[in-house]
Design goal:
By secondary structure, the protein is mainly alpha-helical. It is built from 7 helices and no strands. Helix 1 packs antiparallel against helix 3, helix 2 crosses helix 3 and helix 4 packs parallel to helix 7. The longest helix has about 40 residues. The N and C termini lie far apart (about 75 Å).
């Protein structure tokens, strides 16, 4: 086996593992599988975390994970798949960031790892053992990498920025209310 084949096999293993994990997380959100809350439970969770509107946020998050994961697993439209999954994980990182880095304390270690792994696969490409390769990279052109990641970064920044702004406003309202109660 040549180094090229080993790299392609390694990319297949990495894609399958990362894609499978992301698909399972998305299935929790969308379908309630694997102990997840389904759309209704995820909607409530999204609203509680400050993502509004909750239902659209739940669907977007579930599709980013399940859809991006499925595409990564297949090695299809790999730049878009990696960018979608990475953008979705950026929202999860924002939620977990106040708890610090390590997952054992509720931190952002795990979603950051998934996001960086998905992004790396999206940038590197799916390798020889993929649908992208079988279709002569019809959905994996050099320009799609830049476009997919720019779009994902802008969308993630907008969603996380809107959430952060709403949380700051809610915090200020709560502080004002507490100050009025003291008077």
């Amino acid at each position: 086996m040549t180094c090229m084949n080993r790299r392609d096999l390694g990319l297949l293993v990495l894609r399958a593992g990362t894609g499978g994990v992301l698909m399972a997380h998305g299935a929790q959100k969308l379908l309630g599988w694997f102990g997840g809350g389904g759309i209704e439970g995820t909607t409530a969770a999204m609203e509680h975390m400050g993502f509004t509107p909750g239902r659209q946020s739940a669907i977007a998050s579930g599709l980013g994970e399940a859809g991006g994961g499925a595409l990564l697993l297949l090695g299809l439209a790999t730049p878009a798949a990696g960018a979608a999954a990475a953008g979705t994980m950026a929202g999860a990182v924002a939620v977990h960031a106040p708890a610090g880095f390590f997952a054992q304390g509720g931190g952002f270690e795990y979603p950051a790892f998934l996001g960086f792994t998905a992004a790396a696969i999206g940038v590197a490409g799916a390798g020889r053992y993929s649908v992208d390769h079988a279709t002569d990279h019809v959905f994996d052109q050099p320009w799609t990498v830049a476009l997919a990641f720019a779009g994902s970064a802008l969308a993630a920044a907008a969603v996380v920025g809107r959430r952060n702004k709403a949380q700051r406003a809610a915090q200020e309202d709560q502080e004002d209310q507490e100050a009025q109660e003291v008077r």
